[in-house]
Amino acid sequence: MQAVPASTYSKTPTSSGNSTLPTPPRCYLSVDPITNSPRQSYAIAPDSGSFAPGTRLINWVWYYNLPDPSTALTDVLTDTAGRTHSNTVTSGLVRPDVWRKHLATTLPAMSAPFAALLSIAQQPFVTKVNDALSDKAAFHDGKVVLVGDALAAFRPHLAVATEQAARHCLGLARVWEGETTVEQWAREVTGYGKKMWLASRLLGVFGLGGWGALLKALYVYIAFVLKLKLGKGPKGY
Ligand SMILES: Cc1cc2nc3c(=O)[nH]c(=O)nc-3n(C[C@H](O)[C@H](O)[C@H](O)COP(=O)(O)OP(=O)(O)OC[C@H]3O[C@@H](n4cnc5c(N)ncnc54)[C@H](O)[C@@H]3O)c2cc1C
């Protein structure tokens, strides 16, 4: 999904796809404590942009861990033409045999609504979950800045990445209008970026990791939030 430093999470592919249903639920989250394989779904507009009931699509995301390296991971990332990708197999190129095998082993233990959704999905795509973080947002006396994913690319669980990109641009407008300084802006966005980066890791570990990893991620998150409150966050420039 994004350029990333190595992380345990890079072992985590997600499958994603669309299924058409007449009355899609607004948002549905299912965390399976036995397989550590959370699923999430929500209604989206199709290409026409219509939100009319009966025309909307259900977008779903399904997270699961695979060891890296492993034959299972290589299989998932190898497309129908035999090319092995490092991160993403796009829609239409996921091997039907791999998808069918994955469904066959997981659907019987899955909650009924999700099993129905996944079994009718056409052309899913698969991507590894990655993240990245810079502790500096402004360079060369503020003449070069990082915004959006270039500054902090989050794991997708919080769905705040686009909001972050917009926030950066709105903040820069205030800089260009002289309401704040680029240094102030850089300090704010790097603090916020690291907080959300840690929060999205925390939520991911909640769904996919064990208790030890969860407690560690929680501790790291709380410690950073306290540091921010004490004004000891990253300088950002
Ligand atoms: C599958 C998927 C699902 C997502 N779902 C959500 C979601 O539900 N909610 C959410 O908030 N976020 C979501 N995101 C994340 C969101 O899309 C990004 O956080 C957001 O697009 C970041 O905006 P950006 O402007 O920083 O980067 P981008 O949108 O990636 O824009 C960067 C642009 O730079 C261009 N570019 C790259 N290199 C060059 C170059 N050398 N020269 C010129 N141009 C270049 C690219 O073509 C691109 O247009 C999702 C991302 C993916 C991949």
Bound molecules: flavin-adenine dinucleotide
In DSSP terms, counting alpha (H) and pi (I) runs of 4 or more, how many helices? Answer: 6
CATH topology of the largest domain: D-Amino Acid Oxidase, Chain A, domain 2
Residue-averaged pLDDT: 86
Task: List low-pLDDT spans.
Answer: 1-12
Q: Give the percentage of residues in beta strands.
A: 15-25%
Q: Rough shape?
A: globular
Going across the major beta sheet, what is the strand order?
2-3-4-1-6-5
Describe this protein's structure.
With 237 residues, the chain is of the alpha+beta class. The protein has two domains: 15-127, D-Amino Acid Oxidase, Chain A, domain 2 (2-Layer Sandwich), CATH 3.30.9; 132-229, no CATH class. The protein has six helices and ten strands. The protein has helices at 71-77, 96-106, 112-119, 161-176, 182-208, 211-229; strands spanning 13-20, 27-30, 39-44, 57-63, 88-89, 122-128, 132-133, 138-139, 144-145, 152-153. The strands form three sheets. Strands 2-3-4-1-6-5 form a six-stranded antiparallel beta sheet. Strands 7-10 form a two-stranded antiparallel sheet. A two-stranded antiparallel ribbon has the order 8-9. α4 packs antiparallel against α5 (182-208) and α5 packs antiparallel against α6. The longest helix has 27 residues, at 182-208. It is globular and about 55 Å long. The model is unreliable at 1-12 (pLDDT under 50). Bound molecules: flavin-adenine dinucleotide.
